[in-house]
């Protein structure tokens, strides 16, 4: 009886239904239902739940482990900002215009981490981490060292910075491993962007917990949606290459690669964000045209747009998070904004909407991530610049990665909804 009362309070039972629904949707959109490794899925799910419990209920872990590591990465971003400030001056100061944040704070960080990762690879540090992650994680989740390192790095690094750590392994990854990297990149936000959102009023603690939970969550959803090929072993991807050239040669190559990467990311984002309003207008015109014949039967469609349509699609998920009435409809529109526009706009809407504390927390888990259409362009431009021979995979899997990463975030929100 106590369990029933607990589930009825705050409509927690809806979160339990939501978890089942997310597993069902992932299975429905799977590209290999018969080859899903359910044991791997179960272990990843238990890890996701375990991380949520530990970080939400054990303050020592947050204060002694998570925050110090986060502060260390923020210090790295600070170093990148020193170089950016020399070039751009006050343009890099925090502001509420996403374009300025991206151009003067995010793109320079990509260049800095490209150079830093080249140095780390030159000294063999990345190879060492990849090798031991492969040894430690593969027996638990069955993932390879490169995909595990990139996915784990996404807790603090963005969707283009984390793959830089494994750029020498990218060409050898399977489609399933590449999909894990894509999904994880979209299911997270970088620590630098977290800091920006914290100043807007988004709870930092829950963004950090969401980032950690998204690591096993990304593996879970990605491996269900695109299972690994039978007989493939991640160990084959982990090789130690003899380093040639000098330290400064590695630094120069890394910086040059970072510049190319930043240009590709910015260009693809520009094109995608320019195309979205065009698609919005076409959908709006279609709605107007349909209203002419529908008027004869007394039906009038509202003004159609991608945001409106995805708001309707995501409204049921708001109910599955335990929200009701106008709060659920507003939450659905915010989730739709996150997918069609970006999380910056969605989080602005969330902070300004005066949700209850519980709803605000759950929406943070569901919204604070790069899972949107423009991220397809960012990954095609970013990862595609690192491994051009895999650009076709990135374009083929882009839409599926947006869906998968959105489900990762919603799954974390449902799990936390059962704990709050």
Low-confidence region ranges: 234-238
State the helical fraction: over 70%
What is the H/E order? Answer: HHHHHHHHHHHHHHHHHH
Let me know the average pLDDT: 82
The span between the termini is: 19 Å
| Main structural class | mainly alpha
As for the number of domains, it is 1
Counting H and I runs of at least 4 residues, what is the number of helices?
Answer: 18
Q: Characterize the largest beta sheet: strand count, sense, and whether it forms a barrel.
A: none
**Share of residues in strands:** under 5%
Principal-axes geometry comes out as globular
What integer value in Å does the Rg equal? 21 Å
Description:
This protein is an all-alpha fold and 420 residues long. It has one domain. Helix content is 75%, strand content 0%. The chain has helices spanning 2-8, 12-28, 38-57, 59-88, 98-122, 125-141, 145-153, 161-164, 175-187, 191-200, 204-225, 247-294, 306-320, 325-340, 343-352, 357-367, 373-386, 391-419. The longest helix has 48 residues, at 247-294. The model is unreliable at 234-238 (pLDDT under 50).
Compact summary:
This protein is mainly α and 420 residues long. It is 75% helix and 0% strand. The protein is globular, with a radius of gyration of 21 Å.
Summarize the SSE layout with pairings.
Elements: H1 2-8, H2 12-28, H3 38-57, H4 59-88, H5 98-122, H6 125-141, H7 145-153, H8 161-164, H9 175-187, H10 191-200, H11 204-225, H12 247-294, H13 306-320, H14 325-340, H15 343-352, H16 357-367, H17 373-386, H18 391-419
Helix pairs in contact: 2-18, 3-4, 3-11, 3-18, 4-5, 5-12, 6-7, 9-11, 9-18, 11-18, 12-17, 13-14, 14-15, 14-16, 15-16, 16-18, 17-18
């Amino acid at each position: 009886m106590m369990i029933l009362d607990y589930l009825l309070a705050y409509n927690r039972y809806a979160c339990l239904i939501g978890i089942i629904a997310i597993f069902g949707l992932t299975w429905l959109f799977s590209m290999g239902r018969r080859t899903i490794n359910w044991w791997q899925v179960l272990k990843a799910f238990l890890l996701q739940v375990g991380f949520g419990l530990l970080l939400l209920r054990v303050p020592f872990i947050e204060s002694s482990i998570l925050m110090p590591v986060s502060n260390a990465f923020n210090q790295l971003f600070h170093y990148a900002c020193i170089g950016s400030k020399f070039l751009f001056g006050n343009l890099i100061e925090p502001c509420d215009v996403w374009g300025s944040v991206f151009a003067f704070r995010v793109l320079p960080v990509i260049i800095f981490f490209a150079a830093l990762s080249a140095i780390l690879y030159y000294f063999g540090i990345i190879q060492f981490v990849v090798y031991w992650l492969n040894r430690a994680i593969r027996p638990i989740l069955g993932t390879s060292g490169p995909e595990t390192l990139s996915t784990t790095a996404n807790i603090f690094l963005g969707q283009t910075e984390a793959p830089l750590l494994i750029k020498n392994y990218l060409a050898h990854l399977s489609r399933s491993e590449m999909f894990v990297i894509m999904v994880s990149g979209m299911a997270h936000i970088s620590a630098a962007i977290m800091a920006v959102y914290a100043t807007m009023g988004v709870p930092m603690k829950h963004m950090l917990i969401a980032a950690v939970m998204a690591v096993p969550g990304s593996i879970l959803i990605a491996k269900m949606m695109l299972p690994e090929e039978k007989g493939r072993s991640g160990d084959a991807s982990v090789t130690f290459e003899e380093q040639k050239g000098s330290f400064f040669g590695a630094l120069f190559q890394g910086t040059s690669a970072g510049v190319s990467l930043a240009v590709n990311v910015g260009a693809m984002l520009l094109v995608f964000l320019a195309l979205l309003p065009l698609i919005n207008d076409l959908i709006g015109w279609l709605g107007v045209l349909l209203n002419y014949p529908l008027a004869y039967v007394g039906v009038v469609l509202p003004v159609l747009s991608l945001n409106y349509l995805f708001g309707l699609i995501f409204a049921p998920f708001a109910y599955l998070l335990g929200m009701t009435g106008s709060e659920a409809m507003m939450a659905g529109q915010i989730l739709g904004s996150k997918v069609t526009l970006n999380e910056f706009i969605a989080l602005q809407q969330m902070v300004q909407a005066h949700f209850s504390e519980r709803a605000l927390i759950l929406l943070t888990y569901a919204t604070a991530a790069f899972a949107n259409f423009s991220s397809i362009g960012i990954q095609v431009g970013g990862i595609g610049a690192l491994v051009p021979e895999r650009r076709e995979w990135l374009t083929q899997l882009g839409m599926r990665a947006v869906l998968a990463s959105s489900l990762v975030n919603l799954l974390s929100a449902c799990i936390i909804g059962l704990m709050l």
